[in-house]
Design a protein that fits this description.
The chain has 264 residues and is mainly α. 53% of the residues lie in helices and 2% in strands. The longest helix is centred in the last third of the chain and has 22 residues. The structure holds zinc ion. InterPro entries: Phage_Znf_bind_put (IPR056911).
Length: 264
Amino acid sequence: MIDNHIAALLAFAGRLDSRVRRALADPQQSARTIADWTAALADVPTTLPDTGWDASQAVRRYYEQRAGDRSAQFRPVEPHDVLAAWAPHRAELMNRHTDPIPEADPDDPHAWRKELLGTRAAVAHGHTPPAQYRAEINAAGQKRLAAMVSGVGRGSRRYMPTEIAEQLAAFRPTRAAREAAVAAGQPDAYAHTCTWCGAAPEEPCRTGYRRNGKGQAQRSTPHPCRTDTAVRAEDEHDRLAHLMSTLPAPRESRARHTTGGQHR
Ligand SMILES: [Zn+2]
């Protein structure tokens, strides 16, 4: 808050409290009080629609003497009362914030750190809204992202550049088909056991059926039942993800009958 805002805030407090009003009546004392408050509350915004913060509301609450707090009877409002009221709003902002990648050169750790701290401070002081990357990645984006960062499958999670994988595709048809399916957004059948040929997760399906697995050849595509399992598993995953990302609906407010009501 700058001194203009502080002067307005103190004028508001003066309307609620004659002690503040008297202190502001003297020009010298008034200037000193405004300077003190401005120094103490330099990092506190005046209003912040995002979290519903309003410094004048914080002053008003002090005089409401909530929860049996009788301080207002003994002393007028002070900057620390406003700071204490601001703290939870500030914490709320920081909880929502995800550090953006600084534009500074990563090889210059000093500049990098300075920019990172700068963006955090700007959010904490209400100058900029929090950067909410997590909230902006939807369920489909999260799935693509997970596939990209982990490689496909549960095995050795090594990363292979796309162009190398394309060159090798002809020599590994099973793997290529699998990667193409996942890239197209289809569920990964190889993450599950095949109920037809009994192939374990990560293993390709096998043709025919012979005891001991002798003479069986690898299939380049999974058995249809294995794909079905993957689709079902993904539907279930989507359902859970949807449930977890949906806020509970606000309860309907119904008129409550306290007498004569009949339970249905
Ligand atoms: Zn199979």
